[in-house]
Amino acid sequence: MRMKKFIAILSIVSMMAVGAAGCGSSSDTATTDDTASTDTTTEESTDTSSSDWDAASAITVVSREEGSGTRGAFTELFGVVDDDDNDMTTLDAQVTNSTSVMMTTVSENEYAIGYISLGSLDESLVKAVKIDGADATAENIENGSYKVSRPFNVAVKPDLDNAVATDFMAFIMSTEGQAVVADEGYIPVADVEAYAGEAPEGSCVVGGSSSVSPLMEKLIEAYAAVNPNASIELQTSDSTTGMTSTIEGSYDIGMASRELKDEEAAELEGTVIATDGIAVIVNQGNPTDDLSVDQVKSIYLGDVTTWDAI
């Protein structure tokens, strides 16, 4: 009887030992798995190779649409044209239709390069590179060290018969109007006089270049303060549309971010209201800070296709 009790007790002890060993094994396995999981997480969190700058990557060339005054001025100033002044921008370029879209496109692509109106530059989105060692600033345009600049033109028909349009033109070319130009970061016109308008009632339509449009919006706001009787509608398109629509009569005042073409000047009276620089922009993650005119030209012709070839 005692022997049977001893065997029963021994069996219970053995079962408890096996159970304890099983629990220990489970705990050990869980610890091992947790460690492996932790190691994997740590490895993933410290792996930043995908965001590192790779100079061997292809350059994403971004350009403005045909008809854009900024594109016309850019290709002329950087020599991205043939002997007959035909635009030779690489066919691989992505095309954007406004200054804002250009900045957004470059800000979202580490390897992109583009160009915009200097006065519209938003340094929280993109970086303007130096050109031949000169920073893209209004001061450097004035002192001649930054040579990539172009005029902002407005144009009207010689027989313009709109009192508001005429008065608004006088305001733009006044001391008050040119103060707005300077405040917005553009180069104002010299030798202007104080505004002496008559505050006529009525309306007019101003339209054209998307590069001139931000400045024009500020000029319209300032004019409204001195003539609340007038209503000015601003339509944003491109320089070529600005000129053709003024010739056709859809716009009272057309805007162009370039010189007027001969055929446009034959039918319109152009007035330079400001001088603007063209900023060459790259993504803020791009370490490139300075490019020469020839390097920019080679990129836009498609001769240079990777950043390490600069």
UniProtKB/TrEMBL annotation:
<keyword id="KW-0449">Lipoprotein</keyword>
<comment type="subunit">
    <text>The complex is composed of two ATP-binding proteins (PstB), two transmembrane proteins (PstC and PstA) and a solute-binding protein (PstS).</text>
</comment>
<dbReference type="Pfam" id="PF12849">
    <property type="entry name" value="PBP_like_2"/>
</dbReference>
<dbReference type="InterPro" id="IPR050811">
    <property type="entry name" value="Phosphate_ABC_transporter"/>
</dbReference>
<keyword id="KW-0732">Signal</keyword>
<feature type="region of interest" description="Disordered">
    <location>
        <begin position="23"/>
        <end position="53"/>
    </location>
</feature>
<keyword id="KW-0813">Transport</keyword>
<feature type="domain" description="PBP">
    <location>
        <begin position="197"/>
        <end position="308"/>
    </location>
</feature>
<dbReference type="InterPro" id="IPR024370">
    <property type="entry name" value="PBP_domain"/>
</dbReference>
<feature type="domain" description="PBP">
    <location>
        <begin position="53"/>
        <end position="176"/>
    </location>
</feature>
<keyword id="KW-0564">Palmitate</keyword>
<comment type="function">
    <text>Part of the ABC transporter complex PstSACB involved in phosphate import.</text>
</comment>
<feature type="compositionally biased region" description="Low complexity">
    <location>
        <begin position="25"/>
        <end position="40"/>
    </location>
</feature>
<feature type="signal peptide">
    <location>
        <begin position="1"/>
        <end position="20"/>
    </location>
</feature>
<keyword id="KW-0592">Phosphate transport</keyword>
<protein>
    <submittedName>
        <fullName>Substrate-binding domain-containing protein</fullName>
    </submittedName>
</protein>
<comment type="similarity">
    <text>Belongs to the PstS family.</text>
</comment>
